[in-house]
Structure formats: C-alpha cells, structure tokens
C-alpha cells in the first residue's frame, strides 16, 4: 500500500509527462530533479520506455539512487557547466527532450538550452514565481516545443501501475508520521530528500 501511493500521484504525473514527448526508443531525455520524489520515478518510467536518461541533481545520495536504477549518466548541477555536460553526454547534439521535475527555478531557466533541434521541454514541477524564457528566433529555427503537463487520466494511471506491477518501476520512499511534517519540509527545502515521503496519518 505504501509503495503504491506514490505511483498514483508522482508516478502518474511523470508517466504522462514522458508520453507528451512523443519520442522513440533510444532518444535522450534530460531529467532535472532526478533524485527527488517525482524524478526518481521519472527516471525509471523513461528507462522502461526505452529512453536514454541523463539525470541531473546534486549529492552522492541522489547519484547512488539514480545509479541503482541502471542509469549511468548523472550530472551534479553544483559541479561545472551543466549545459556543456549534457552536450558531452549527447555527442555534441543536445537532448531530444527535457522533463523538468525540479523544485528550483534554475532548472526551468536552463531547460531549453539542453535541447537539440526539434527537441521538447516538458514542464512538470510547480515552483513559485518561476518563469521560462525562450529566445524566439532560436526556438523557431530549432522547432523547439514547450509543453506543460499536469497529472494524468485514468488510462495513464492503469498503465503506470502495470509497469510498477511488472517490476519495471519501484518507489524509493520513507514513511514519516504526520507529526514530523515540519521536519520533512525542512529537509525538502534543503534538497536532502532522496525519493518520496509517504505520510502515515494514523
């Protein structure tokens, strides 16, 4: 039950966002916020769809979490130029898509810069007072797409659960008592949560 709860919220949300890309097996997908509650599921769903995942986050805990799903490309946004590293990982071409699930505004500002021509940015997270700016000439010339994706429908839920039931996706989570909610928010704000928190309301 605890493991299924995040699938029906975060899992469905990122699964639907990945479907919005409309890519093919082997396409590269950058996931800023890869080690968080949405991101660790996005990495697994993307991998199950045949995408090559380039994970962006920070810290050894999140690096290890992402690696545990068989994802080799991890970029620590606190170490060096992220755009350069994305292009290095994609043989200088840029990614086919970026699915932004991060809670920080910088990830949204940078997302378009990771793309190759005909690439897509899918916006999923909801950080306060955050904007994405697109240079019109470059966006038109490169046929870039900016897509907003919000949760999913019943069919998305069924498909997301089937992948989890088949063992293609698993939830990394910690159970916390409702009384510990202030502490959870503090750790979240500090970027110290790997995976998802499930609240026990009993």
From TrEMBL:
<feature type="domain" description="Alcohol dehydrogenase-like C-terminal">
    <location>
        <begin position="37"/>
        <end position="165"/>
    </location>
</feature>
<dbReference type="GO" id="GO:0046872">
    <property type="term" value="F:metal ion binding"/>
</dbReference>
<dbReference type="GO" id="GO:0005737">
    <property type="term" value="C:cytoplasm"/>
</dbReference>
<comment type="similarity">
    <text>Belongs to the zinc-containing alcohol dehydrogenase family.</text>
</comment>
<dbReference type="InterPro" id="IPR036291">
    <property type="entry name" value="NAD(P)-bd_dom_sf"/>
</dbReference>
<dbReference type="Pfam" id="PF00107">
    <property type="entry name" value="ADH_zinc_N"/>
</dbReference>
<keyword id="KW-0560">Oxidoreductase</keyword>
<keyword id="KW-0479">Metal-binding</keyword>
<dbReference type="InterPro" id="IPR013149">
    <property type="entry name" value="ADH-like_C"/>
</dbReference>
<dbReference type="GO" id="GO:0004022">
    <property type="term" value="F:alcohol dehydrogenase (NAD+) activity"/>
</dbReference>
<keyword id="KW-0520">NAD</keyword>
<protein>
    <submittedName>
        <fullName>Unnamed protein product</fullName>
    </submittedName>
</protein>
<keyword id="KW-0862">Zinc</keyword>
């Amino acid at each position: 039950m605890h493991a299924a709860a995040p699938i029906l919220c975060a899992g469905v949300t990122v699964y639907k966002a990945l479907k919005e890309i409309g890519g093919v097996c082997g396409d590269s997908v950058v996931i800023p916020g890869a080690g968080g509650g949405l991101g660790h599921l996005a990495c697994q769903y993307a991998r199950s769809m045949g995408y090559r995942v380039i994970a962006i986050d920070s810290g050894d805990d999140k690096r290890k979490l992402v690696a545990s799903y068989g994802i080799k490309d991890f970029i620590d946004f606190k170490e060096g130029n992220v755009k350069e590293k994305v292009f290095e990982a994609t043989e200088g071409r840029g990614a086919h898509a970026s699915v932004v699930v991060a809670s920080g505004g910088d990830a949204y500002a940078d997302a378009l810069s990771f793309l190759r021509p005909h690439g897509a940015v899918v916006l999923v997270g909801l950080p306060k007072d955050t904007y994405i700016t697109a240079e019109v000439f470059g966006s038109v010339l490169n046929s870039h797409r900016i897509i907003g994706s919000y949760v999913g429908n019943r069919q998305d839920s069924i498909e997301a659960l089937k992948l989890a039931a088949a063992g293609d996706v698993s939830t990394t989570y910690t159970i916390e008592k409702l009384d510990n909610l202030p502490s959870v928010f503090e750790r979240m704000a500090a970027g110290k949560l790997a995976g998802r928190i499930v609240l026990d309301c009993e």
